[in-house]
Structures are given as structure tokens and as C-alpha cells.
Hints:
Layout: H1 4-19, H2 27-43, H3 50-81
Helix pairs in contact: 1-2
Amino acid sequence: xxxxxxxxxxxxxxxxxxxxxxxxxxxxxxxxxxxxxxxxxxxxxxxxxxxxxxxxxxxxxxxxxxxxxxxxxxxxxxxxxxxxxxx
Length: 87
């Protein structure tokens, strides 16, 4: 995985080579090459899709809710088992 600065430096270098060619490329050719360049760069990063991120957030929220319920039950059971303090 590339560090963000290294990634941006490499992307900038490739883009400058793409846009500074001696012969001007048609717009659609530049767009397709730039998209390929971005996809290549992003594939080197450790990224997840928005759908995967959202699904993991749902799982995390569900897990937190279950954990809070379990903690409340444990506290209730501990309260039942602990004898009242003698005065």
C-alpha cells in the first residue's frame, strides 16, 4: 500500500506526462487514460466501497446495542447476587 503522499506524487507525475504530450489527444482519449490512471492508483490503496462501509456500520451498531443489553443484564445479576451492605 502506498502512503497518501506517495500516491498523490505518483498520480501527479502520471497526469503531467499524460497532459504534456507533444501531440494533443482527443478529449475522450484523455478521459479514458485518466480514469485508467485513477483506477490503477486506487487499486494500490487499502480502500473499501461505500456499500461495504455502510454494512459494517450497521453490524457495529447492532453489536453495540447487544453489548449494552448484556452489560445491563450483568449489572442486574450482580446486584441480585451482592448482599446488601451491613450497617
